[in-house]
Each structure stands twice: as C-alpha cells, then as structure tokens.
Amino acid sequence: MVLGTVGSDESMAQKNSEFVCVPDSRKSLCLEVQKQIHFWVISKMRLHYLALFASVAGLGSLGCSRDPVAASPAKLDVGKQTSLAALSTSDQRIGTFYLHDFGKVLPGQVSKHRFSLTNTTDSPWTFAKLIPSCSCTVASTSAQTIAPSKTETVEVEYKAPKNNGDDRRKVGVQFAETGSPMFWLEVKARVRQPMSFFPEYIALSQVGKDVTESFFEIHNYTSDLVKLEAPRCSEPWLEAELRPIEGTSPDVKQVWRVVVRAKTQGLRPGRHADEILITESGTEFQKRVPVEIDLVAPIRPIPNRLFFGSLERNRPVEKKLSLLLSSDVGGLTADDIQINHDLGDRLKIRGSRSSNARMEITATLTPPGDGEGDINGTIKLTFRDPSFPTITIPVIAAVNP
What we know:
By secondary structure, the chain is mostly beta strands. The chain has helices at 9-17, 27-61; strands at 96-105, 110-118, 125-132, 137-141, 145-146, 151-159, 165-175, 182-191, 195-198, 202-207, 212-220, 232-233, 238-245, 254-262, 270-279, 286-295, 299-302, 306-311, 317-325, 337-341, 347-355, 358-365, 373-383, 391-399. The strands form six sheets. A five-stranded mixed β-sheet has the order 1-8-7-3-5, with no helix packed on it. It has a four-stranded antiparallel β-sheet with strand order 9-11-14-13, with no helix packed on it.
C-alpha cells in the first residue's frame, strides 16, 4: 500500500481519511495499521500546536524579563550608576552592610566618604552596578575590578536635603561574577539649620471661642551661646512666650520652647493668620514663624438655607435643618434660642435638642391659596448668650400656578 507524501497536518489528516484497506485476508491487520496511523497523526498535530503555543508564550514574556547579573565579567565605566527602581526584587538581594555617619550637617551641604571593599576570595570581582537610593547620592569606584586579596574603594557623595530632619541613604554595589557578594553602603546625617525651628509653622484647625495653645521649639546647633529677644506678634489675638529648656542633648547648645496662645474671643469665624517674629540680640538674625487658625462658629446651621422647591397651594411642606454645636456651647437648649422670621403665619418653626452636639430645627411652610410665584424670606436665630453671633437662614420656595 502507498501512503503518499506527508506534508502539513491537513494533508496528513486527508491521507488518513482516504486510506482503503485490502479485502478480507488482511482485514484485521489493516484495521490495526489504520489505528496506528490515526494515533500518529493526532499526536503529530498536538505537538505542532504545543510548539506554536510555546513560541507565542515566549514572545509575550519578552516584555517582562529582567536583566540578570552577567555570569561573565561586564565592563563598567568608573562611576556608572543604575537606578534602584530599575532592579527587580530578586536583584536587590541581601548583602553586607557598611554604615557611615556624617553627623550634623547643614541643609544642602555636600559630604563625601570612601568605603573600602576587600576581596577575600580567589577570584576577581568586576564592578557591574552601583545602585543609589536617590539622586541626592552619587557613587564612583577607584578601579574596574577588585583583585583577590586586594582592596578598592567606592566613594559616596551625599547632598543633604533642604529641610531639617534625620536622613539615611544607601548605595548598592553589585559585581558581575556569579556567586559574588552584594554590598550596601549606607550613609546617614542629622540635617540641621544652625538655628532650627520644630515645627516651622503652626496651624490650628477647628478652633472654638476659648483660648487655644500650641508651641514650637528653637534649637541652637552652633557652638556659641545665643540670646533671643522676646517674640513679637502683629495681631492682638496672638501671644507668644519664650521659655528656655534645660537638660538638652549633647549636640544642641540651647533649646527654647515658644508657647503660642490664640485668643479668639470676638473674632469672626473663618481663617486668621499672623506671624511670630524671633530675633537674636546684637545680630541681624530673624525668623518668622507663620501661625494660622481656622475658627469655627460655635453654632453652625446645616444646610445654611431652607429650599422648599415647587409647592402646591395650601399644601404644607416640612423641612429640617441641624444646628451643629461646638464644645464651647455647653448646655444650650431650645429655650436659649429666639427664632424670628418674616413669613407670618405661612411658616411654623419648632426646635429640639437631639444630642450634645446637635439641635434640630423643623420648619413647615404652607403656600397661600391664591397667587403664585416665588416665596423668599429669612429666619433669624438669636441666642441668650451675647457672644454667640446671630444666624440668618434664607427661605426659598416657588408656588405652582
């Protein structure tokens, strides 16, 4: 029998379907051969599609593959760096840590330190990657490789940030050889202005009508004793008091605490701002510390207007609003509030205390039986305590024809 030439999977399937057995004497053998050919064709087709799938999957994985550390020595230009974010988690392997403390530095100051790395193995180490944690840190190497039993250096240049704070940065060192160690070179610094302020501004939110206090500290990091003048404020509602603090840390020459008091009695609700001026006796040094307070009204209506929408004649509609009470209000009751409005008998109002921090005002508006158009009026809430400001609430409605 002739099977023909095998080409594509389609031709194989076609040849198999056209196979004709010889008569009786070989029938059994013919059936067996047909089964074997069928199995062979199906297996061949499966292998074909598996190979195709594998090739497609391989193409799809190209975009997410990482660049491994080269097994053979890779050339590194002295001082070349790569981004820490560019490495995968597995590249950032744990290694030996070295730490250098620059101590107290000025904001923006540039400091340098050379770390010594010794090759304790029998094989050379070729620098492959220098990995700074941020752009404020720059690293460079003294050589391309570290020979066995030799020592080379990596210089780390660190630029302190502009603001006060404790800062730590690191540089990773990778070598090209498989099985070579990983080094992390870390530097830290205490970034301080000669006269440092903690914090550098005061912001007080949700302030009531009582006196509110806060503070900031002044640290003298110079080697000289300093005499500060009494703080000065521009606004009458703001006071500041300078208090020296004893028993400070060794690297601080002097510490003062400035107590800030905001006397908000008589101020309107809203934001108020001022500055505290700090000066040094006999010098031109001065520092302004901004102070901002957000004074909330002791009683706030939510919502701040009553909008009834479109109304039918002679059909009453009820609306509610809440009075949010600050902690300054205390035991305010409905009897402490006088409610007036200019809508006559068309508007009925009642109030009740729902919680320690809230009162409910219920207003029922009944449009007149004749006429149409807009209804505009106002509700005025006055309080037995004269320190609480009068609250005016607009009333708006429209009467359908």
